[in-house]
Design a protein that fits this description.
five-stranded parallel sheet; Immunoglobulin-like; five-stranded antiparallel sheet; binds alpha-D-glucopyranose; alpha/beta
Length: 509
Amino acid sequence: MYVRSFADGDGDGTGDLAGVRARLPYLAELGVDALWFTPWYRSPMKDGGYDVADYRAVDPAFGTLADAEKLIAEARGLGIRTIVDIVPNHVSDQHPWFRAARAGGPERELFHFRPGRGAHGELPPNDWRSEFGGPAWTRLPDGDWYLHLFAPEQPDLNWAHPAVRREHEDVLRFWFERGVAGVRIDSAALPAKDPRLPDFVEGRDPHPYVDRDELHDVYRSWRAVADEYDAVFVGEVWLPDSERFARYLRPDELHTAFNFAFMTCPWQADRLRACVDETLAEHAPVGAPATWVLCNHDVTRTVTRYGRADTAFDFAAKAFGTPTDLALGARRARAAALLSLALPGAVYVYQGEELGLPEADVPVERIVDPMHFRSDGADPGRDGCRIPLPWTAGAPHAGFGPGREPWLPQPAGWASYAVDRQQDDPGSMLALYRAAIRLRPVFGGDAPLTWLPAPDGVLAFSRADGVVCAVNLADAPYAPPAAAELLLASGPLDDEGRLPQDTAVWLRL
Ligand code: GLC
């Protein structure tokens, strides 16, 4: 949940905890059993809250610590657990540690400060690039440089320093004490750095800052803290190597991690099937549940991605003006919803996905995402998937809030996706998500998956008790097994009961 864009309770144009609390019944009705909140802590919002100035305070734009405590308790009362987001790789440049470091204090050791190269130290200490584009180093007026793998306002912490480890374990306890049931770990494979900070050499192993072995020791001690509270972790671990990925999921480390292979997989039957198989195979040896993700607050929204010629997701390929067939994308997104909700493991739904929201074209002068600016304007950035939600079609700002204009503009026609338009329409995306989440237990929790024989371009698998999910990605209509009871369909079947292209069904044999 991207709080800033979920619902605005106080009318200042920014979503807040009061807005979430007022909409908890909506979330309960949708059937979610946990909410992951992107950072709600005090932050200058240079990267949407992923620049944390104080982990023990809620940003005033979102509310107060007391509001967070009420939200956690009220959600719990509705059977919904709360997951907060911890960002170990960096803090805000307004965090007290960095302010002291900038002033020349011993806190510099908590970050990566180095003199520059070149005759006058005018060159960065190494050649690392920021994930948002440009160099990963910024020079202070006193001549020293500091490392930031993201924006300059997000200085990287030095995880070789014991105070950094202590502080994070304290922060975990702070939130667990307040009833939080889980933590999402931001950029979980990045915090440890080669202490020599060498130049980057393509293919050299180990990488100077991605997936370093030292990290596992950090997460093992986090796990011990979580175990005291029976809390769980979900790691943001982007790693192409499935064996390396699975190391984070060993029994004494993280409980789960996001499945980015699935989220970036093109809409192709063979690729999806291979991805499901690889996912299950990599999780099996460590005994961790898989996760299934179609989009999040960083990537192109699902209906837009699936409506394009290239249905994979790649940050490097994001461009303004990519042609998109939204009707096609929506049909596929509906089928993908039934596919992912039929798989064994946990499914993450990103706010607005259940409404079928497309990626919005944010007018250039309104873009705030640093990814756009750091690419010198080439990358449209991530604001298009962060547009304030439409709740009530006839209300100002589509019911996002009672007062000021939302912090990002809602595109024309946004009200047509509003919750009140969809909630009583059995053919809506919202109705499909509600029905699928309600029915999902028929697949039998973590019952194993067995592929069934199917023509090219069709995915069909069974789980418990003869319950089957079939998805047709081929041009030819697909006739599901005869005499099966239809439980749910992502779209109309043809006159002979066959699945047209880009349609999924759940059946009981
Ligand atoms: C993660 C977050 C993203 C943020 C980045 C830096 O990738 O999901 O939104 O910009 O980390 O904290």
